[in-house]
Amino acid sequence: MDKVKVGLLIEGYDQPMWVFEMLKKIVADDHSVISLVIIRNQHTDTKKPEKESFFKKIIKNRYRLAYLVYTRIENYLFKPKPDAFEITDTTEFLKNIKTIEVEPISTKFSDKFSATDISIIRAEKPDVIIRLGFNILRGDILRAAKCGIWSFHHGDNMVNRGGPPGYWEVFRQWKETGVVLQVLTEDLDGGFVIDRSYSSTDCISVNRNKNNYYWKALSMIPRNLRKLHTMGSDNFMEKLRADMQVPQFYFNRLYITPTNFEVITGLFKIYYKKLTLLIRRIFTFQQWILLYRIEKKSPAPSTSFFRYKKLFPPKDRFWADPFIIFENNLYYVFIEELMYNSNKGHISVFTISPEGELSTPQKIIEENYHLSYPFVFQEQDDYYMIPESMENKSIDLYKCSVFPDKWEKVKVLMNNINAVDPTLFFYNNKYWLFVNVRENEGASEWDELFLYYADDFKSDAWTSHPQNPIVSDVKKARPAGRIFKQNDQYYRPSQNCSGHYGRGMTINRITVLNENEYKEEVVQLIFPRWDKKLISTHTLSFEKNLTVIDGLYLRKK
Hints:
Blueprint: E1 4-10, E2 14-16, H1 17-28, E3 32-40, H2 54-60, H3 65-77, E4 87-89, H4 91-94, E5 99-102, E6 105-106, E7 110-112, H5 115-123, E8 128-131, E9 136-138, E10 149-153, E11 161-162, H6 167-171, E12 176-183, E13 192-200, H7 206-217, H8 220-231, H9 233-243, E14 254-255, H10 260-283, E15 284-294, E16 309-311, E17 317-327, E18 330-339, E19 344-352, E20 362-365, E21 372-379, E22 382-389, E23 394-402, E24 406-415, E25 419-427, E26 430-437, E27 448-454, E28 463-464, E29 471-472, E30 484-486, E31 489-496, E32 504-513, E33 518-526, E34 534-536, E35 540-543, E36 546-556
Parallel strand pairs: 1-3, 1-8, 3-5, 7-9, 8-10, 11-14
Antiparallel strand pairs: 2-4, 6-7, 10-12, 12-13, 15-16, 15-36, 17-18, 18-19, 19-20, 21-22, 22-23, 23-24, 25-26, 26-27, 27-28, 27-29, 30-31, 31-32, 32-33, 34-36, 35-36
Helix pairs in contact: 3-10, 8-9
């Protein structure tokens, strides 16, 4: 189809920075064009309401005073950078685009457009209208664009509808915060879901929580405009309708601005938990350790974690991200080793014999930036490694010249990319690179899994999968080790970072993998519940009879 014609529904030209960055992405892409701005009439001569006295404001908001005070304190104490809500003037950016001023019929919560305004809007034939302002929309305006009005619900509409956005997840200490992009219907927050995503909830600050997932969410509209352009409007809308055939009942309350009691009790829960952690840190510290088991009977992953032996590093460092190579009748375990005094990781290796004898880890790769996740693999007679090098904004390939301790960088596979935990997989005569990517500064790198493919693993021209991101869910996106095969099925271990980093692991069965489509299904969730001192576990590796995982352990100082 031709370029997607996009209309913007805005209250004024002053917009938060996340909106401005989203509009820049739409303009930069070659599949869409912003062809129409629909703005509330800026020149209507309305009588200004009488200014309320301070006393009247107190009386009027007496049941919500704690929330108002809390919001002011938050704005003073927690100022995330970059700030998604920094106000930006978009006048220059939008000045050459056809603009229609409208005067909707407004009630306390909703706006209804006149037949004249709708007729003018329809005459411009927008494919999509993006709602970036106005109240709840009612009436024929919902059908003024071919593919409807697209709007964010900054929350998981299966869990919490209403608002304020990003608040209840923190004050109820929910593990994740959702965001939904939908085509609006008369059913408030119950429209056709175009896309949804989940981030880990910041358990302390509403401002930080909102900032993170607003930065991430801004990419959802440009991505789906691209899909609309590729699929065509009829196929795109048909798929949305098909996805909505299963009834979705919402059974929770409609959330509104919290009462004084709800704010006070919520703050007590948050800071009681924080105080408990601070007291615990006086006597203990958290350290990533390794846990392993050698199965004597059969070459398969050891599935009973309570049987694993613990391998503790010295207290000045941690060990994590194990990957195994079996060579010369020894297990070579490659790990991230991070020294606390420099807070910078390097790659080390140690050996485990089939009888369980261990060597001391030795440093093998160090750069002037942080390295981790040493994804090591064999290709014919050579060994290669793709460690994580997000701090360098690159994905690099290393080759081993003398196994296991001499390595040299031989290729930059991708540059100018904020990517973590690259995981290579050879399947159907192609190399598939799974990697978590943070597209927007200010968002988290835990949430979104991207997939690239090439005919040669040494390529520097990887093709982006059309479904990218193939996963947008903090509970199962980030890789947690190499993809493995068992009983003719392929499984992708991933991290569950809901609540906190590396909280657990998710085992996903890959059901479809080709150049056009990717599907996987969750088969098991793994949490470190076999030991009360374990807080997290986030990497799984096995080779022949040895299985190694890592864990965040609570140790005495």
